[in-house]
Amino acid sequence: MKIAILPGDGIGPEIVAQAVKVLNALDEKFELESAPVGGAGYAAHGHPLPEGTLALAKAADAVLFGAVGDYQYDNLERALRPEQAILGLRKNLGLFANLRPAILYPELAGASTLKPEVVSGLDILIIRELTGDIYFGQPRGVRECPDGPFKGQREGFDTMRYAEGEIRRIAHVAFQAAQKRDKRLTSVDKANVLETFQFWKDIVIDVSKDYPDVALEHMYVDNAAMQLVRAPKKFDVIVTGNMFGDILSDAAAMLTGSIGMLPSASLDANNKGLYEPSHGSAPDIAGKGIANPLATILSAAMMLRFSLGRAEQADRIENAVKSVLAQGLRTVDIHEEGTTKVGTEEMGNAVVKALA
Ligand SMILES: NC(=O)c1ccc[n+]([C@@H]2O[C@H](COP(=O)([O-])OP(=O)(O)OC[C@H]3O[C@@H](n4cnc5c(N)ncnc54)[C@H](O)[C@@H]3O)[C@@H](O)[C@H]2O)c1
Ligand SMILES: CC(C)[C@H](C(=O)O)[C@@H](O)C(=O)O
Ligand SMILES: [Mg+2]
């Protein structure tokens, strides 16, 4: 089985190296092939998603991705910016379903900025639509403002849109995920203001007829952001659009103690997928050897479970992560008094050692 390894920029190579170490320590040997992506792709081949990298990702059974982005590339034209690499991979591989599970490991209850009683026992799943919405809608750009008080000035604009089929397929993924959990689904929208999201809501209601065993509720995104920090355990599965899902999943990350703990799976219709931590390239800590590699290691576990059919290996990795946390090992982002501060590599080594 072949896995494409795309480390990317910033802390990407540091954290992916730890996940690779863990994969190599499993009984089964996987064929791992690396390629540059993001700023690293631009530096090597003049494009954030070089042809060879895309071809490797397409040919592989799964993709393990680090992170892309570096401020030194922020002034490049948009098509050449590192972030286009991950957007291009999602679009080219048809990865429309992004699963971001926010689980609080009991040992990290004190690491969250929220009170332990608010977050302890937290286990929610955010399902973010990943290839539509304002992220990909056309037209977009900067033009001359056609009317109103700012007529004649330049204006920036984007297009929010969702086709019916795009909403239906992500809704099915969400209802089916809810069926395997507590059978509660919250669809997050902004139907009170946006046409796109009134349409979203109507279609989700229509799809819900196929899933009478799942309790569906609707929530506006502003309220959902508030409820996520007020009473996050009230949620089971959340389904939402691309942009709202991006924002809400970063908020949910803090419930788990740190964004360095939140893995993700981005899946196509056949469960082929790309696996990456939900966080970015963290240029502020890159090269210091202090980034938390657990979100990436847990993403590798999701890869084994969802795309490679190796649930028992995934369990081993997840149990190893629980074990290192129980041993009191903490990277700086989740460190608290009475625990042992370790760097990126030490954390990776500890997970390898803890594999049962
Ligand atoms: N999928 C991706 O590749 C992805 C996702 C988000 C942001 N980005 C890009 O990353 C760059 C930086 O973006 P940002 O600063 O808004 O978000 P970020 O997620 O990179 O960092 C936000 C904060 O969280 C911290 N952090 C992130 N991951 C961490 C980890 N594993 N361990 C410890 N601390 C961690 C960072 O140090 C920073 O303080 C930008 O270029 C952005 O476009 C890429
Ligand atoms: C880097 C960026 C394009 C990306 C997104 O907005 O989807 C990131 O924030 C994420 O959450 O994966
Ligand atoms: Mg994001």
TrEMBL record:
<keyword id="KW-0464">Manganese</keyword>
<comment type="function">
    <text>Catalyzes the oxidation of 3-carboxy-2-hydroxy-4-methylpentanoate (3-isopropylmalate) to 3-carboxy-4-methyl-2-oxopentanoate. The product decarboxylates to 4-methyl-2 oxopentanoate.</text>
</comment>
<dbReference type="GO" id="GO:0003862">
    <property type="term" value="F:3-isopropylmalate dehydrogenase activity"/>
</dbReference>
<dbReference type="InterPro" id="IPR019818">
    <property type="entry name" value="IsoCit/isopropylmalate_DH_CS"/>
</dbReference>
<feature type="binding site">
    <location>
        <position position="90"/>
    </location>
    <ligand>
        <name>substrate</name>
    </ligand>
</feature>
<keyword id="KW-0479">Metal-binding</keyword>
<dbReference type="GO" id="GO:0009098">
    <property type="term" value="P:L-leucine biosynthetic process"/>
</dbReference>
<feature type="binding site">
    <location>
        <position position="222"/>
    </location>
    <ligand>
        <name>Mg(2+)</name>
    </ligand>
</feature>
<keyword id="KW-0560">Oxidoreductase</keyword>
<feature type="domain" description="Isopropylmalate dehydrogenase-like">
    <location>
        <begin position="2"/>
        <end position="351"/>
    </location>
</feature>
<feature type="binding site">
    <location>
        <position position="222"/>
    </location>
    <ligand>
        <name>substrate</name>
    </ligand>
</feature>
<dbReference type="InterPro" id="IPR024084">
    <property type="entry name" value="IsoPropMal-DH-like_dom"/>
</dbReference>
<feature type="binding site">
    <location>
        <position position="246"/>
    </location>
    <ligand>
        <name>Mg(2+)</name>
    </ligand>
</feature>
<dbReference type="GO" id="GO:0000287">
    <property type="term" value="F:magnesium ion binding"/>
</dbReference>
<feature type="binding site">
    <location>
        <position position="250"/>
    </location>
    <ligand>
        <name>Mg(2+)</name>
    </ligand>
</feature>
<feature type="binding site">
    <location>
        <begin position="280"/>
        <end position="292"/>
    </location>
    <ligand>
        <name>NAD(+)</name>
    </ligand>
</feature>
<dbReference type="GO" id="GO:0051287">
    <property type="term" value="F:NAD binding"/>
</dbReference>
<keyword id="KW-0520">NAD</keyword>
<feature type="site" description="Important for catalysis">
    <location>
        <position position="190"/>
    </location>
</feature>
<keyword id="KW-0963">Cytoplasm</keyword>
<protein>
    <recommendedName>
        <fullName>3-isopropylmalate dehydrogenase</fullName>
        <ecNumber>1.1.1.85</ecNumber>
    </recommendedName>
</protein>
<dbReference type="InterPro" id="IPR004429">
    <property type="entry name" value="Isopropylmalate_DH"/>
</dbReference>
<dbReference type="GO" id="GO:0005829">
    <property type="term" value="C:cytosol"/>
</dbReference>
<feature type="binding site">
    <location>
        <position position="100"/>
    </location>
    <ligand>
        <name>substrate</name>
    </ligand>
</feature>
<keyword id="KW-0460">Magnesium</keyword>
<dbReference type="Pfam" id="PF00180">
    <property type="entry name" value="Iso_dh"/>
</dbReference>
<comment type="similarity">
    <text>Belongs to the isocitrate and isopropylmalate dehydrogenases family. LeuB type 1 subfamily.</text>
</comment>
<comment type="subunit">
    <text>Homodimer.</text>
</comment>
<keyword id="KW-0432">Leucine biosynthesis</keyword>
<keyword id="KW-0028">Amino-acid biosynthesis</keyword>
<feature type="site" description="Important for catalysis">
    <location>
        <position position="135"/>
    </location>
</feature>
<feature type="binding site">
    <location>
        <position position="128"/>
    </location>
    <ligand>
        <name>substrate</name>
    </ligand>
</feature>
<comment type="pathway">
    <text>Amino-acid biosynthesis; L-leucine biosynthesis; L-leucine from 3-methyl-2-oxobutanoate: step 3/4.</text>
</comment>
<keyword id="KW-0100">Branched-chain amino acid biosynthesis</keyword>
